[in-house]
């Protein structure tokens, strides 16, 4: 079993419920255990600003699945929750599941890049990740705590609701 951190985001179709449903579905994956999920956070959208704010969280799972198999499973969950992949990379969506970290592996192929590109500058990833893994050291050797200290909060707000697992 390997520890995997997954970023969750939604800004369509009742985002809080989308995140909750996604965490529930992660918990049902074969050879996988959902360990914990961060609080929910409200963030401004990346890219076009003419869309609703996002709700974000980070989940920790332990899995025996390969990175590619887990990616296929998370994309299936996105699809089952109404995600339609469009050319607009940062447009609105019902659900976005990103494999942030897969143990200490560094993966860069045509389908998957881990650690997730840009995660080191994204407050909506770093702050929820720090909440559940404050002592984490990334595969590159950087301490998560140092990244959080250097990352502006950019209006990120911790929400009163939490994900129930």
Quick overview of this protein structure:
The chain is an alpha+beta fold and 165 residues long. It has four helices and eight strands, in the order E-H-E-E-E-H-E-E-E-H-H-E.
Name some characteristics of this structure.
two-stranded antiparallel sheet; 4 helices; single chain; six-stranded antiparallel sheet; Alpha-Beta Plaits; alpha+beta
Q: What is the CATH domain class? A: Alpha Beta
Q: If helices are DSSP runs of H or I spanning 4 or more residues, what is the number of helices?
A: 4
Whole-angstrom Rg = 15 Å
The count of strands amounts to 8
For the record, the CATH architecture stands as 2-Layer Sandwich
Percentage of residues in DSSP E strands = 25-35%
**Domain tally:** 1
Spans of at least 5 consecutive residues with low confidence: none
| CATH topology annotation | Alpha-Beta Plaits
CATH superfamily: 7,8-Dihydro-6-hydroxymethylpterin-pyrophosphokinase HPPK
User: Roughly what percent helix?
Assistant: 25-40%
**How confident is the prediction overall: mean pLDDT?**
90
Q: Secondary-structure element sequence? A: EHEEEHEEEHHE
Structural class: alpha+beta
Written overview of the protein:
This protein is an alpha+beta fold and 165 residues long. The chain has one domain (2-162): Alpha-Beta Plaits. The protein is built from four helices and eight strands, in the order βαβββαβββααβ. Strands 1, 2, 3, 4, 5 and 8 form a six-stranded antiparallel sheet that branches. The chain is globular and about 40 Å long. The two termini are 20 Å apart.
